[in-house]
Amino acid sequence: MRREALGVKRNRFLWILAASAVLVPELAMGLPQDRPQLPNPLGYVSDHAGVLDAEWKARIRSVCQDLERKTGVEMVVVTVPSTKPHATAQDYGSALYERWGVGTAQQDHGVLVLAVAEGRQATVTVGKSLLGVITPPIIEGVGSTYLEPAFRAGRYGEGLYRATVALAAVVQDIRVGEPPRSRLKGLGIFLTLLTSIGALWFLWWIARPDLRHPYGRLRRGEFWGSGQGGFGGNFGGFGGGMSGEGLK
Q1: Residue 38 contacts by C-beta under 8 Å, 6 or more apart in sequence?
Q2: Which residues pair with 75 in a beta bridge?
Q3: Is 182 exposed, middle or buried (0-12, 13-18, 19+ CB in 10 A)?
Q4: CATH of 3-170, one of 3.10.310.50, 3.40.50.1240, 3.90.550.10, 3.40.190.10
Q5: How far apart are CA 114 and CA 96, in angstroms?
Q6: pLDDT single digits (tens) 63-117
Q7: Domain boundaries, the chain
Q8: What CA–CA distance (Å, rounded) separates 245 from 248?
Q9: pLDDT digits (tens, 9 = 90+) for 216-229
Q10: Using CA atoms, how far apart are residues 14 and 12, in angstroms rounded to an integer?
Q11: How far apart are CA 175 and CA 180, in angstroms?
Q12: Whole-prediction pTM
């Protein structure tokens, strides 16, 4: 089966379509009110084509659940018998993504993996917040490595499971709603360095009792009686020539 059947080579068009639909929603306002009928979501896995057995459904669902729990990214997997009433799998996937609101609650951190039984096609639609993470080369790699060979052999469950694992691995470091980790990491390093410098300065200050004396008050003679012995060796003439009256 040619790669075109999986929609792999046309993923760039899919990405542009998905992004524009999210970034410029007013484009959809010109569509007819009687929109084509689409299936309803059935959770993380919507097997409308009936090509997945219970075991593969459970595995795929587990990956999607763990991904959303850990990162906040919502990923759903859908199978349909055909692309009708849409012309291509890309159009169908984009329409489902918009109609179902995938990733809407997650600030557009959504992923929809669609498999079409007719023609054994597959496509991936992502939200605008993930466009810089799940790139076209990544989608091409997932399609050629996991989806195409498995679909060719009729193993839809295996192909979709391995594809979801691969996509989840790409976004596993994302935390929806949190500041970028790099900023937090930089702040942590700065605070650690500042604390270390403070601790070293304190230890150095403790180890130098002479630095703890109020030198200004010593110069005024307020502590001359307690410090005279120490000054006698270094400043013999100066110490011997000064007394309590001499400081007044």
Answers
A1: 95, 96, 99
A2: 111
A3: exposed
A4: 3.10.310.50
A5: 9
A6: 999 999 999 999 999 999 999 999 999 999 999 999 999 998 889 999 999 999 9
A7: 3-170, 180-223
A8: 5
A9: 443 444 433 333 33
A10: 5
A11: 8
A12: 0.61
- Tell me the one-letter amino acid at 200: L
Among 147, 173, 172, which residue's Cα sits nearest to residue 162? 147
**Helix or strand run (H / E) with residue 206:** helix 181-207
Place of tokens 């059947």: 5
Q: Which two tokens stand for residue 31?
A: 């569509």
One-letter identity of residue 137: P
**Alpha helices, DSSP H, located in 31-147:** 54-71, 89-100, 136-142
Segment 39-67, tens digit of pLDDT: 999 999 999 999 999 999 999 999 999 99
Q: DSSP label at 228?
A: H
